[in-house]
User: Fold this.
Amino acid sequence: MRRPGRDTAQSQRLITRRGLIIGGAQALFMGGLALRMRYMQVEQADEFRLLADENRISIRLLPPTRGRIFDRNGIAVAENVPSYRITMVPEEAGDVDKVIARLAQLVELDPEELDRARRDLREARGDTAVTIADRVSWDDISRVAVNTPALPGVAPEVGLSRRYPHIGDYAHIVGYVGPYAERDRDRIDAPEQLLRIPRFQVGKFGIEAAYENALRGKAGTKRVEVNVRGHVMRELERQEGQAGTDVQLTIDSGLQSYISARLSGESAAATVMDCETGDLLACVSSPSFDPNLFVRGISVPDYKSLLENKYRPLPNKAVQGVYPPGSTFKMVTVLAALEAGTIDAEETIYCPGHLEVAGRRFHCWKRAGHGNVDLHRSLRESCDVYYYELALRTGIENISAMAKKLGLGIKHDLPMTSVAAGLAPTKEWKRRVRDAEWVIGDSVNAAIGQGDVLASPLQLAVMTARLATGRSVTPRVIRSVDGVESPTGHGEDMGLNENNLRRIRQAMYAVSNNRRGTSYSSRIIEDAFRMAGKTGTSQVRSAVVDNNSVPWEQRDHALYVNYAPYESPRIAVSVVVEHGGGGSRTAAPIARDITLQALYGEDPPLEAYPAKDRGRIRSQQEELRRIRMKPGGEGNDRA
Amino acid sequence: MSYLEYTVKTTPTGFRKVLYLNWPLAILLAAIASVGFLMLYSVAGGSFSPWAEPQIKRFALGFAVMFIAAMVPIWFWRNMAGVAYGISILLLLTVEFFGKSAGGAQRWIDLGFMRLQPSELMKISLVMFLAAYYDWLPLKKTSHPLWVLVPVVIILLPAALVFAQPDLGTALLLMMAGAAMMFFAGVHWAYFAAVFSMAAGLIFAVFQSRGTEWQILRNYHYDRLDTFLDPASDPLDKGYHITQSKIALGSGGWTGKGFMQGTQSRLNFLPEKHTDFIFTTLAEEFGFVGGFSLLLLYALILIFCISIALANRDRFSSLMTLGIATTFFLFFAVNMSMVMGLAPVVGVPLPLVSYGGSAMLILMLGFGFVQSAHIHKPR
Assistant:
């Protein structure tokens, strides 16, 4: 079939015209595209470049290195050690459970830790790393590193972890760090971002908590390029943070560790204080616990066993535990009486074995009575009736004021957890707290450190140091922060009559060195280091311990305070053995051993002990050395 | 003049056909494909796998397909147009019922060596069939209502099938390409004016009625429309894509960040960086200079095709060449508008550059027909 030529020509004209129209429209559209492209890439380029940088650049925090804690001789008691951990970014892992299963074939994963990690994985943002296994061995880490292609999102990481080389020795003083938790929010004043670092370690207890701000340091930052999943591709810039400041304690590791060993097996506390500076040379609460367990989060059974232990390892009995001071309080009563002029040092009071007060009979511990007793004898032999009489003459307000002057019933400012104020009761106190009137019987009880009087081992040491020096020595546990020495607790003269003090010191000397003294059997025979002390035995009253009717819990607390050497006091010591029985039998030997250890700075020669004790002491020294040599018992790494 | 009117003697035969091939067009196609190889190499982080290498192989195959199609006389292809259209319709029906579902849409048939998207095939078949129809239809009947209705049905049938897949983007592209074919063939402009004004009126009514008593669509329809028209309102999905795409393109600046230095694509902020959004990587790494150059290459392809069409006295050849060129234009115009945030995100690849097998093969087949029309034109 043929078509007329005209048709073809017309068709061609039409196609040409319309083809050019559409072609023109296409050209216009492309011109529009080019203009749009130019507008975006030239006029708006800076804006978009900024957005692109915001996309790709992420600022990551570099956790600061936590400050270390040293003892007075520069031995590290809290340090940072490299720790290897395995982390996982859930978003990159994809199927988290599958990856964990594969990981479990390579390294042993603690089921409890794994549960915690799973919870973290659920709660964390998809692009943040969650710790799967902490404190992994180098072998495990290298196995994971080799297998990373099969483990998406899993990364081996090196970090610093807190370590307490002395295990339990410093648990109560230094405390421990642990992962930041919601409940720490009110206490910790740290920049938000820092706390968002998974398992960021903050001080939880003791000096770690009290000096948190100094120890923490300042975080550094690094600018990193990240991909859309937040995975770091490379580092662009790094600004190092500032390590936390180091803290030095006044504690002497050797002495601390000796006392820990000496008190082992007892529920007890002991404090050794430098009379010159107020430095706490040792501050031990027994039994103790391993603070390293808390660093990565203690397991439930471990924590439960600590809580259920009847010897209560967790609280720091040396500063937190308060006990009726018993006869160790008698120095307070007699000094109050001497200062008030209600008794003369030479005056004797007759002790028939008891005293009737307001229709009630108060017994002396010696039912047969001491006969005529003066100040010296009353302390040496710990006559109670003498002090009942002093209470009647002097009044509770004077006694309480003297107690506070000597450091009892007031809270000492120490950076430790729950420092107890103890109690030096007054009439006003009883009205306010007990809603009852003070009766004379209360004064009589208080005079021998029973009734309402409560004191911590720390306060008893402070009292002893003040009696020994006449100065208001105050305790100090931080020697320096970042190399800057803290003010000492040397203290001002308390303005007490030196004659009165001398009388008391002589009596305390007799307690230890006179054949009739209550702690004569625990004396020191090295003349340069003779000590002056006082025994105490306090009845267990309701509030202090939970009174199950187990015999151990019904026994009396044994106390002893002393200072040495007698002529020029260097140290003041206090020992409290919970339910230890009698002060002279249980507490005094411990205090004597501690005193000798502190004064010699090492195991003392047997010649310092009374001849008949030497055989026993030798085997005891060997036994204690063995305890201290146990791994982790004492670190030797000097800073 | 129809191909029946000139003697076969005047057309080149045998290997002489190779000399009559439009080589500048072939080289332009290869140049654009090379830009694609370069970008696929870049988005893979400087690696031929997984995209650049298969793409090169496919282009080689596509180039061979174009060459073979060009050697076959154009009148053979004209006779095959109806068959091609019929097969395409059947394949569309097949995917509707037996096709594999990719991302919720039934789009392709697995042929073993490649996945065939019938909608891609239909783009070429439709152009061929409409060209053949208008070649057969006497010119004076072109604007007759009855003979206008026939091509409308020819266009709407595949468009409806593709829309049902659902692939709204491709359905719209088919309708626009078909309308362009009708316009080239000389259908009276009043029809177009009427359709445009009706469409505009409908859209106006839909949006004006929103929130009034005589609201045309339901509320959730409007919500979907909002997301479609303004992806930024749905920042998690498509809005995120388009925002990242604009950031990548804009941050390229005049000369770009340098080859393989595009942070947006290298760090995976860009979605679909090897397929629909590949232009963004080009614009990020080579800046305005790079993006504009690619636009110029596309413009040159159009210019060559239009001149081939206008220099050909055979009605089928002219119409088909213009139709292929328009389809090609629609591809890259929609893709570029999309990545620049001018058009909603519809799955349209950048022709010859985006990673993808069947789209490239079908397109090269189309250019094979253009070359055939050029070789076998009446002389």
In short: Chain A touches chain B through 46 residues (CB under 8 Å).
